[in-house]
Amino acid sequence: MQKNNAYKKPSEEAELKAVKPKKKKRVKKKRYLFLKFLILMLICVIVFMTCALYGYRFITEGTAQAAIPLTEENGIVFKIPSGAKAVTIAEELKKQGFIKDTRVYKIISKVLGFDSAYKAGKHIITKDMNYYALMVRLSGEPLKNPTVDIMIPEGKTLLETVSILSAQGYIDEGKFLKIAEKKNSVYKFLKDIEDNEARKYPLEGYLYPDTYRMDEGWTEEELIERMLKEFDRVFTDEHYKRAEELGMTIDEVITLASLIEMEALYPADFKKISSVFHNRLKSKELPLLQSDATVQYARVYEGLGRTSAVLNKDLEIVHPYNTYLHQGLPPGPICSPRIDCIEAALYPEKTNYYYFFATTDGTNIYNETFEGHTRDQQKYGVRGQ
């Protein structure tokens, strides 16, 4: 009788039964993992869609806020200094109450590419703007402020300059003078200024005379900073080296230049007058500079004001700046000299002059001797040093 091929031994049937449950477990495990994957993907999609929706609303809302026209009446002026970084801007926004979290602001600014887009100047923003609106506003064109031309005249004392600017409504006199009273060692040319009770304003002589175009809304500090920067620009390394060659401090050079500025009417006289003062500074017999301009300065600071002509009684004013009473240079500059006078102080003409005086038309007459000096004074009918 032929055997049935389908017949299996009992042991084989048991093995087959054992294999079937294992396969079912694997299938269930795979289905479970797949289900977990689907759930995870669904969560990711939900999170992504939520973020995208929030981001979309954040940007569209910010764009709408940034598009609202603002003026200084219904907004707040926020100033971005030149060269300010995103970190600094974020900190200032928080300080002024426009944002709550600088870290979030910095992250969004970096991700959206605003870090290098901010523009220096004044921008109008509001405290109800979201971060995106603020970024759009601060990266837009700043306010185009009208400008004002401020003229700082040469040959004026600091007090006279302040009086002129104050009368024109450009500055607050008290604020300006308070700043000018402080010693400033930021600039190289101001570092050798010594403390002196006779010198109330350390910045006297260094507020360079020129016309400055200032944006409307500038402060006294900004105007003074502009003038000091201009002095720093015109006073070059060559001038520093020349002062060292002469054995003079920068302050002595500017003080001498201020005397030249006040004594000369015409530029042709700058270097000749400089030679007279240099010769006297080196002289043992004639150590007094005897400059009428220093007496005028003393009068201004004694509350007497300038006079059309210095009289003999003026020469007796007891004041540290009176060079008829005190030898050498006065304690500091008597005005803000222009660069031509500064260069004349550094490069005097080589002469043997020790005396000069001005005629009625402003022409200066020079002499080597006192006899020649008095003779020419009588000839022209004037008095001079």
Overall outline: elongated
Give the end-to-end Cα distance, rounded to a whole number of Å.
Answer: 157 Å
Q: What is the number of beta strands?
A: 6
Strand percent estimate:
5-15%
Query: Major beta sheet, specifics?
Result: 2 strands, antiparallel
Order of helices and strands: HEHHEHEHHEHHHHHHEEH
Helix segment count? Answer: 13
If strands are numbered along the chain, what order do they take across the biggest sheet? 1-2
The radius of gyration is 40 Å
Q: Which percent range fits the helix content?
A: 40-55%
How many discrete structural domains?
Answer: 3
Alpha-beta classification: mainly alpha
Runs in which pLDDT lies below 50 for 5 or more consecutive residues are none
Q: Describe it for me?
A:
This protein is mainly α. The protein folds into three domains: 76-138, 2-Layer Sandwich (Dna Ligase, domain 1), CATH 3.30.1490.480; 147-234, no CATH class; 247-380, no CATH class. Helices cover 48% and strands 7% of the residues. It contains 13 helices and six strands. It has helices at 10-67, 86-95, 102-111, 131-138, 158-167, 173-181, 220-234, 237-246, 250-263, 270-282, 292-301, 339-346, 370-380; strands spanning 76-80, 121-125, 147-151, 211-215, 355-358, 364-367. A two-stranded antiparallel sheet has the order 1-2. Strands 3-4 form a two-stranded antiparallel ribbon. Strands 5-6 form a two-stranded antiparallel sheet. Strand 5 (355-358) and strand 6 (364-367) form a beta hairpin. Helix 2 packs antiparallel against helix 3, helix 9 packs across helix 10 and helix 9 packs across helix 12. The longest helix has 58 residues, at 10-67. The radius of gyration is 40 Å and the shape is elongated. The relative contact order is 0.08.
